[in-house]
Design brief:
Layout: H1 7-23, E1 68-75, E2 77-81, E3 85-88, E4 91-94, E5 98-114, E6 120-132, E7 138-142, E8 145-150, E9 155-159, E10 174-178, E11 181-186, E12 189-194, E13 198-202, E14 205-208, E15 212-217, E16 222-224, E17 227-230, E18 234-239, E19 244-246, E20 258-261, E21 265-270, E22 275-277, E23 281-283, E24 287-292, E25 303-305, E26 313-315, E27 326-328, E28 332-334, E29 338-343, E30 348-350, E31 354-356, E32 360-365, E33 370-372, E34 375-378, E35 382-387, E36 392-394, E37 396-399, E38 403-408, E39 413-415, E40 507-519, E41 524-526, E42 529-540, E43 550-552, E44 556-558, E45 562-567, E46 572-573, E47 583-592, E48 598-602, E49 607-611, E50 617-623, E51 632-637, E52 640-642, E53 645-646, E54 649-650, E55 654-656, E56 659-665, E57 670-674, E58 677-681, E59 697-698, E60 709-711
Parallel strand pairs: 1-5, 4-5, 5-6, 5-7, 6-8, 6-9, 7-10, 8-11, 9-12, 10-13, 11-14, 12-15, 13-16, 14-17, 15-18, 16-19, 17-20, 18-21, 19-22, 20-23, 21-24, 22-27, 23-28, 24-29, 27-30, 28-31, 29-32, 30-33, 31-34, 32-35, 33-36, 34-37, 35-38, 36-39, 37-40, 38-40, 39-41, 40-42, 41-43, 42-44, ...
Antiparallel strand pairs: 1-2, 3-4, 25-26, 45-50, 46-59, 47-50, 48-49, 48-51, 51-56, 52-55, 53-54, 57-58, 58-60
Length: about 725
Amino acid sequence: MRIHISRKAMIVSLLCAAVAAGMISGCGNESKETSSSQSIVIGQSSKAESTVSVTSEDSDSSYNDSETVKIDLNGESASVEGNGAKAENGKITVSSGGTYLISGKLSKGQIVINAGKDDTVKLILSNADITGDTGAAIYSQKCGKTIIVLEKDTVNTVTEGKAQESDDSDAPDAAIYAQDDLTILGEGKLTVNAGTDNGITSKDTLIITGGNIDVAAGHHGITGKDNLHISGGTINVKAEGDGLRSTYSDTDDDDKGHIYIENADITITSANDAVQAEKNLSVKSGNVTITSGSGAGEAKTDEVQQMPFGNNKQTDSSSEESAKGLKAGCDLTISGGTFTIDSADDSLHANGNISISGGTIKAASGDDGVHADDTINISGGNITVSQSYEGLEAVNINITGGTADITASDDGVNCSGGNDGSGFGGRDGNMNFGGRMQRPDMHSGENSGDDSQQMPQMPDGQAPQMPDGQAPQTPDGQAPQMPDGQAPQTTGNENSQDGSSGNETGALNISGGTLYVTAQGDGLDSNGDLNIKGGTVVINGTTRGGNGIIDHNGGCTVSGGTLIGAGTSDMLEMPSENSEQNTAVILFDSAREAGSLVYITDSDGNILFAMAPEKSYSCIIFSSDKLTKNSTYKVYTDGTASGSSIHGYYSSSTISGGQQYCEFTQSSTVTYANSSGNTAYSGGMGGGMRGAGGTDRGRQNNGQFPGNIQNDQSSAEDI
């Protein structure tokens, strides 16, 4: 959504925002993400494959029984048959590499691995039930690699003992804790219970290639600090913190801090982020079901308290904790898999780029559906965002393939960019109070999605005026300053917390695929250019003022594909006359009801376009290579369409009945028509045409098309 105001009102609003910024406590430049993520170098190349080398021992659950040391657990004691381990007062210590078969129940004790730094210790859990005395029940203190095999057809349980506080960062804080590499595999079941701490943690690399693993954790679920690689198994995590994590943040080591997932069934219920990679997160295949932060239905929205002279104070009752679905500190790559995500915060989030080339994604978000601080690339897959504040948001968005079905309470697709502070009340370096109030360029005018939120007003509802008609000045006669003494900035995210320079405008480029948008804000919104070269775009646009079917600050060109939009003609923006493909704009004398059919035929009666928009509308935009200069077309309303439709759009149909609304000739690249035929259109905010990019901007009030119309045709007939 964009609200365009006068220069005077802009200065007043900037002053108000600056004052409000000083009044709101706790709204500094601190990022709401973890502090370690701020050091990540944004824009690293996406890693479609795992950085972890998986060897045969990471997937082979077999063992030689004759070479196995047997450990029998019996209450608060245990017995050891073989060399390499000893048991004393319930504590079993493994001191050398080898294979150890563990069975029975240990009600109060611990298994400790303290072997050589290059040793591999394999623990075979065969109906083992281990409860720790204090802290970790299984603690790999030192060895080259610990391998836990879940023997087929066995049920195993590991329960953390009483947690102990420690200032030592290497102190075990999980039910299963490894200082070095850890692998879990097999065909058995493992239940991990961690009361107040983490479930499973490896300080190095954690590999899971099999097993049926349930983790209930009072803090984080499963952590592989250096890397988390999952390539098999069934994993169910319930965590009061994050679900899955990789936390290595040193940018000097590009091969660490990543999460890779394939061929696994994963279910996560987390209070915070479900899956969080400090660097890159890649998913190649598998089934992932996520509920984070109690889900989208529980997400809280920003509340705005109206104050005199526009000093709107924004409060937020939601948590400062991040509750995203899939989150990457650098890049997020999805090439396959099935995802069901119900998230209080962004469903998919990357501080760098997001690339989607395959898979099926169904997401409901309390904030953005898919958000990248830099670029979103969609080349394949099926994406459904059933609920969001903004559906797709990034500095740059490139859609070359796939199918995306986006529902948003504000903009459907938004190229505004910068790091994401929306939805949770945090003020970022761009003067975005939760991303919902005025932005510094004053073109976006974003709000929380509440139609009632307007630009600041004086107590009597009038815009503030200075006695001499001049812009307001501060007491010292200087221009308004931000709380830190700096002048308000109007560019993008050059001061973003991630350290990247960002992109001041960005661009939305569509060259393939199918995009359905249902938005209460702008359907497509680009702070820079909007380019459509191919694909199919269908927009059920807003019914509220201050928004448009498409919106752009730069040029808009259409050179291919199909663009279909229905909505209000308020804030109407069109493609440039420099576009290679023609566009027809049908303006109705009054708003039409949702579900009312409208279709266009050529002079031979061939149906070029048919749609029964899901919301009320007073304007139709249609761009297609089927529209040719100097050809005549007819617009019909009502009637009955047969055939399948998606969001009211019929890709093919047979229509009976209806009434001709108008006949028009495609006389120019962008042709306007109303009930009387072709019309010269020059409506707009404050009247006139918008010159930048050859864009026409108009405004419609209360569903009625305004003046400045010259009719050159008059035709109406029934069919």
